[in-house]
Amino acid sequence: MIKKILISLGGFVLVVLSLGAIKIAQIKAMSSIDHSKPAASVTTITAGEESWRPSLSAIATLAPVEGVLLSADADGAVLMVGVENGSSVNAGDVLFELDATVEAAQLASAEARTDIARLNAHRATELLAKSTISQSEFDSTQAQLTQADADAGAIKALLAKKTVRAPFNGRVGIRLVNTGQYVSRGMPLISLQRLSQMYVNFTIPQRQLPLLQLGQDIAVKVDAFPSDTFAGLLVAINPEVDSTSRNLAAQALIENPDERLRAGMFVNVEVVLPAAKPAVVLPATAIVYASYGNSVYVIEKMKDADGKEYLGASQRFVKLGQTRGDQIAVTEGVKVGDEVATAGVFKLRNSLPVQINNTVQPSNNPAPKPANT
């Protein structure tokens, strides 16, 4: 009986020792595993300095240097339309003629009265010289002549309003009335615009007023002609700031000899400032935006707890400047020559080991052209 108990205890001890040996082997195997942080794959770029000429950007609207919606200055039926839709006209060209038969008859009557008054005034002059009539009778005939002339002049002015002429050289739009249609005074007839030059109207925040000066160069981009840039000059700055938006209105002038640009177009305008400032330029993908501050990750050599060197990410807070296409200027926080992570930055943190793979680089074009444009 005792022998059986001893055999059972020996078997139990043997099992315990076997399990302990297995556990020790597992612990040794786990302790031999490398528990260092895994390296994150990133792309990088060496920070370089470029001289960007600063500019002010704004949304603008095009307006003609001369433009008007011509309207009827008198009542009457449209007798003749003297212009084709969209055609060019010169100052003084007849665009519309309204029925003026009544006014023509009234003018003939007024001119007849003027002729009689002129004859009476001539006879009165002769009779006054012979002292046949009094001075008051002579003055009365002169006043009648003056009144008759004035009546005829008024009818001539009304008759002239029956003819609508182009006030300046330009291009007309689509007419709003047709031959035979009765129009009343003030009714719109057709638009006329001179398109050889265009105004660029835009607003800027009041804090940017000190940066503006008359004569500064401007560059205009239009969606309709994405590959073209239209140059011009700043010609006017509004002396009054809008009390609601605290913005200031400004106006530039650009040449438009081929009339490609039209009034009312939505455009982007850049006012080129005189001073050129060098700046560290990075791809926009390198920036980590956050409410507490924007930052980048600079890749540099670091040492772990055992003194072993490795490539790691170091977060640096930055101040950003102007953007241009895929690029952004960094005014503080990055030096020329720093190696900055440009892709995979959102998975980085301080001292995290990194592995550089620059096989595919993010876009870094100052003037990108998307395929859909």
The parts where pLDDT drops under 50 for at least 5 residues are: none
H/E topology pattern: HEEEEEEHHEEEEEEEEEEEEEEE
C-alpha termini separation: 97 Å
Write the CATH fold name of the domain at 40-50 and 277-356.
Answer: conserved putative lor/sdh protein from methanococcus maripaludis s2 fold
Kindly state the percentage of residues in helix: 10-25%
- Share of β-strand residues: 35-45%
Folded structure, characterized:
- With 373 residues, the chain is of the alpha+beta class.
- Among the domains are: 40-50 and 277-356, conserved putative lor/sdh protein from methanococcus maripaludis s2 fold, CATH 2.40.420.20; 56-65 and 193-272, Beta Barrel (Elongation Factor Tu (Ef-tu), domain 3); 100-161, Helix Hairpins (Orthogonal Bundle), CATH 1.10.287.
- The chain is 23% helix and 41% strand.
- The chain contains 3 helices and 21 strands.
- It has a 6-stranded antiparallel beta barrel with strand order 3-10-13-12-11-14. Strands 2-15-19-18 form a 4-stranded antiparallel beta sheet, with no helix packed on it. The chain has a 4-stranded antiparallel beta sheet with strand order 7-6-4-9, with no helix packed on it.
- Strand 12 and strand 13 (247-255) form a beta hairpin.
- The model has no long low-confidence stretch (mean pLDDT 85).
